Fold this protein.
Amino acid sequence: MLYGIGDMVGAGIYGTIGTIAGQLGNAVWISFLVAMVAALLTGLSYASLASRHPRAAGAAYVVHRAYGRPFVSYLIGMAVAASGLTSMATASNAFALALKPSLPAALPLAAIILLFLTALALINFIGIRESIWANAICTLVEVAGLVFVLIVGARFWGSVDYLETSTATASIPPGLVLSGAVLAFFAFIGFEDMLNVAEEVKDPVRTMPRAMVAALVTVALLYVAIAITAVSVVPFRELGDPTRGAPFVQITGRAAPWLPPQVFQIITLFAVANTALINFIMASRLAYGLSRQGLLPAPLGAVHPRRQTPHIAIGCIAVLVALLALSADLAQLAAATSLLLLGSFCVVNIALVVLQHRKGEPRGGFEIPSIIPILGALISVVLIAARLQTGGRAPWIAAGVVVAIALLYRLLRPRIPPKPDVE
């Protein structure tokens, strides 16, 4: 449960709450509510899959088992991996925006992003022995920061109209809510990673479903409460203005003026840096592993003779993330990450339905009605369609990633070894 909460809480809520509030207005909490429903439906599907197949292969294994198509499982596995890169790029932007007010005005945002990624690459290169402790400490700092905001901001509840939007219309535009939900969904990303550590958990058939559901419900309630608190304390137009500083620094500046602004600025930096570092470590090791399997170019599987870290993979990922981070703003990168994962979730939900109705397929300790994964797939499609209608660079970024994955598969297909379907 703590692993799931730690994986979800981070750059998502700290980096996007202001952007979503600026787009939607005081009704920002509705977008988080919609995103919560989407995450819970898919989370239940993942919990069921974890009880059926508690394997480290995660979504790619389940998709391969359901469809028997190597390209589909390769596409899903790589799309999930690519979402880690866009998530790192999002965190890099959020880190730079949070740190910029404390640095000389002449220093460009791009320079801060590049310095941040260079520091992460060096940490990753040196080693990750202490990464688990660092992650635990950062998670405690992040959650403590959110709880503090709720405590000092609770007295402001009820001070605004929570149905007021950023548009001139009296009603709440459904398209705007759904577009905001795609961004809000980014804050829930991380629960799917729990499936990848199922093999390392004692009695995963029983504990994993409970942990997934408990983590999702806890984070969902926390996020909705934070969204309401944020617009109660700071007008949504100011909250969505990046020139006024990080959203949580603005909130504590009004709700707790006695608190030095540097405190929450540091907490925000901890949150987004932790998200970026976790994704960096996972992405570099994933690239190394895929290379060793023949699914990515061989040089990515090289290991530094002294540090015993995949130095070429680390360098290549740093360059890719830098290009992504400099090519689009935070909102576009977060939306691209959400689009990639929403597409993957749609395929995984349908895979569960296929497995549920296949004769001879082993059952798990946490079975759910087929209507749940069907609804999970449908709401994923609705959110994707809503985001595509708003335009911007996000769909193109996501589409470019999918095309790149397809080209990689075509180039490397002869090297892809057959995978036995065994439990």
Residues 290 and 296 are 6 Å apart (CA to CA).
